[in-house]
Amino acid sequence: MGLTGLFAIGLATAVSAQDYQRPSVSGIGAVAQPEQIAAWDIDVRPDGLGLPVGKGTAEEGEELFADRCAQCHGDFGEGVDRWPVLTGGHDSLTEDRPEKTVGSYWPYSSTLFDYINRAMPYGDAKTLTPDEVYALSAYILAENEIVERDQELNQDNFAQIEMPNRANFFADDRAVSEAYTERCMSNCKAEAVNIVSAAPELDVTPEE
Amino acid sequence: MTNALNRRGFLAAGAASAGALAAGSAKAANPFEPKEWGQFLGAGVDDEPYGTPSEYEAHVIRRNVPWLTADSVSSINFTPLADLEGFITPNGLHFERHHGGRAIVDPAEHRLMIHGLVDKPLVFSLDDLKRLPSISRFYFIECAANGGMEWRGAQLNGCQFTHGMVSCVQYTGVKLSTLMEMVGAKPNGKWVLAEGADAAGMNRSIPMEKIMDDCMIAWAQNGEALRPGQGYPMRLVVPGFEGNMWVKWIRRLEIGDMPWFAREETSKYTDLLEDGRARMFTWVQDCNSVITRPSPEKPWLDRKGFHMISGLAWSGRGSVKGVDISLDGGNNWIPADLEGPVMPKCLTRFNLPFDWQGQEMLIQSRAYDDTGYVQPTFAQNRAVRGVNSIYHNNSVHTWHIKPDGRVENVQLV
Fold first, then answer.
1. Which fold does the domain A55-168 belong to in CATH?
2. Using the beta-carbon criterion (under 8 Å), do A204 and B66 form an inter-chain contact?
């Protein structure tokens, strides 16, 4: 009984196959409102685009850093225990144990503002005001001897700060420098192979 | 009532036999004796609305290396490759790398915004995205740091730890080219910033060319919703590129005319070379492979005779074309069999049957892909990069098979 009833309704409202036209995608999603974009658009680029209005000096940042950052990064950015080191490491990049820090490694100052503003303090992200981020960035840059302690950083000059290691970055060149295509199948080794290291000797593999 | 009683009896007996197993099987197993499971009724269909693996598989889990990172929140766990079959990673065993912990995101409070150099900036809810034409594709994802602990020498004894920052699932989602058409991306919009909703606010710059080629916004993995650890409710899929770019919990795509040089593409995920220079934008995961059996986790332990050597290969450039196996530390090579299906930017299983008579061996796998690229040795990679580049170690890996069948991670000259 129900079956025939359903059928009748289905047929009455169906679109016939001949009438079917494949539609294009439209009408899905809402137009992003300017205030919605403003609430989320926090990124900062090396050309300064995205830097909010604000200012700060290393002197102003020192206490705030001690308050909200030093427990992990140390009073001077030297790093506590295994937490990241933010300062020092100059001229260490060619050493056996390089120390990559904001001062010794980072190519752009804008990255510092962008990152602190979105991700720090670790565990309490996105709680700093623009002035605080300028001051904290200034403090880290001053501890790395890149700006003066009393130098005011703001939306107009922040992106112009020159980072010492900038010239040492270059775009991926593996397609040229690592174009390995030789597939040797027999007698590939000129000399006898020897084991030079074995993981069990180090004994650093986590146990069950 | 009887059902409950029987179930209790069954569970108690099950626990007892699991205990016996753990104690080293004091009593030899006899599969031919009557068993509890052959006598008592099993559980009903209502006890486990979402299924879980057998209790006898409890050792097949993700593991982490506590000394790698300052805490376990910005850290990584590894997929147990040695215990997996085929090429799919079960959702609960997918490796996780978070920079601000595993975010638990309420989809009702989550949106994806696309703005910047576009005609019409749009905001999508998860339900909006699910109404769009979707595709399902198999891809591997590999952390750029996979194998990164092995640059200076053999360090971790297990393929879970040497290679387990790779997983492979079927993603379902919408092609980014569809979304870019909807917002009307402008011709000078050559770059896209992807940003996550997590506490790290993970952000990466991706070239528009790649976005239009094969990137997706995925909401499902292996047929079900993404797991929180993989970015629920939505993540970016960037096939063949390093895992960090596959922004999880994605909430924003901004189209711009230059890269952003975010922390994860400057301070991290750049490759420091011996001369102090550093490569940036090293996105592609090069062709790589690992033998998962035998391995430190799956030794041959006095079991002479027939064995299958089995492993996984992959390439971020395209499809795996073949895998060669060496038994003598790379002097001579035997082509292995690819199991199939062989798909681009997807894990591919390889096998080689072997009759082992207790010989000591140094076994290696070497994959090559359909661009002609052949997986290099440690010596080749170190000659160009030194030992401090951390990322993109795809060197041919060696297992030392000892006469008693134990397997160790070693490196050779």
1. Cytochrome Bc1 Complex; Chain D, domain 2 (1.10.760)
2. no
